[in-house]
Amino acid sequence: MPHQPSTNLPPRHRAIKWVSKDDAKLLDARAEGKNWQQIQDEHFPTKTPNACRKRHERLIEGRRGEEWTAEDLEHVGRAYAESRKHFWSPIAAALGQNMDWKAVEKKVFEKGPKAMLALSRALTRREREVDGDMDLDDEADEDDSTSGV
User: Fold this and answer.
1) Nearest Cα to 144, choosing from 114, 119, 122, 110?
2) pLDDT at 17 (0 to 100)
3) Residue 134 pLDDT more than 70?
4) Confidence of residue 6 (pLDDT cuts 50, 70, 90)
5) What is the pTM of this model?
């Protein structure tokens, strides 16, 4: 049986397919520095601010993929191959227990960078709760929107 859209959502937030002109509006509004709530209010009343953010992420990811040539990827591959031990070894050492850097690399790639950042934020929150200090700035929550992660 095909999946039916939920009818429990308010009419203004029911799923409506994105079209090319929406994409252009979304990219332009974000380039103007508007936040997701402003973009939703002004341009997409039938969508949520989160839907606008997710669509924008997908559009940007798609653009990034178009900018890479095969030669670019080869150079990135070589640079990664030459630096991966240097990159992952300090992280493995921080974990202790004679952790192999290759095992750390494998686990991070298995989970994915977004999931690893979410785990870091969760650990930071738990540590704050234990310490009773909920007002500190969370270094793990820094805006990573420009990193592509």
Assistant:
1) 114
2) 86
3) no
4) very low
5) 0.47
